[in-house]
Amino acid sequence: MALQPGSTSRRYTTDGDCAAVDHSSPDAGVLRDVLARQRDDDAHDRGLIVERLAWTPEQRLEANALFLRFYLAVRPSGPLIRDE
Fold first, then answer.
1. Is 54 part of a structural domain of the chain?
2. Backbone phi, then psi, for 44, in 5-degree steps?
3. How far apart, in whole angstroms, are the C-alpha atoms of residue 45 and residue 59?
4. Where are the alpha helices (DSSP H) in the chain?
5. What count of Cα atoms within 13 Å lies in the side-chain half-sphere of residue 52?
6. Is the dihedral of CA 36, 42, 46, 49 positive or negative?
C-alpha cells in the first residue's frame, strides 16, 4: 500500500527510540520488514522513487503544495544564502 500525499502512517515516539513502539500489534511483522528495508538506504530510496512515480499528477501537485505549506511555516526569515 503506497502512502498518499498528506497521509500519516508512521508511528513516532517522543524519545526517537524505535523499541518504544508496541511490537505486539498484528502488524508487528510488517513493521519489522519495513525497518529492515529502511536499513538499506539505496533500497529505501528506490522504494520511495517507485512509490512517487505511481502517483497521479493530482497527487504530485498536492504533495508539492503540502511541502510548500510546510516550508513557508518553518522557513527562516531573510535570504537563505547570505553573502558574508
1. yes
2. -65, -45
3. 19
4. 28-39, 41-53, 57-74
5. 13
6. positive
Domain assignment of residue 50, yes or no: yes
Q: What is the DSSP letter of 2?
A: P
**Residue 59: exposure state from Cβ atoms within 10 A (0-12, 13-18, ≥19):** middle
In angstroms, rounded to a whole number, what is the distance separating the alpha carbons of residues 63 and 18?
26
For each of the chain's 84 residues, which pLDDT tens digit applies? Answer: 455 555 544 444 444 445 455 556 668 888 888 787 778 778 878 888 999 999 999 999 999 999 999 988 888 777 777 777
Q: Tell me which residue of 55, 66, 64, 9 sits closest to 34, measured CA to CA.
A: 9
pTM over 0.85: no
State how many domains the chain has: 1
Residue 46 in any domain: the answer is yes
